[in-house]
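Morning!

This is the sequence you dropped in the shared folder:
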Amino acid sequence: MLAAVLADIRVPRIGTGRPRTTPDAVVADRAHSSGVTRRMLVGRGIKAVIPQKKDEIAARKRRGSAGGRPPALDAVTYKGRNVVERQFALAKQWRGLATRYGKLAITYRAAYILCARIAWTRA
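The structure's back. Tokens below.
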């Protein structure tokens, strides 16, 4: 799913020019720490801000010098991940979003956009 999500990114530029399609970094939790994910991001020139799982760290250490270096983690950027997590928690308070009553993707997206806009106007 990561490839599909990255393909759909369109960030409009201020002024003229076509929208950006590549983010500067992808911030994710440990569940998304896999070699496949990291290689896909590096191949697209995107910085991966994902901490390693404990078992990945142990496996690398067991291999010794053949295990390679641990991937770098930008701790300051990773701390900002809680903003996104809080937005998901807010969206889950909407029953229609949490239980996925709307079966069509377009109605689900519209409900989420409405939720995000209401949250933004309150802030």
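Headline: The two ends are 31 Å apart (CA to CA).

More detail when I'm at my desk.
O.
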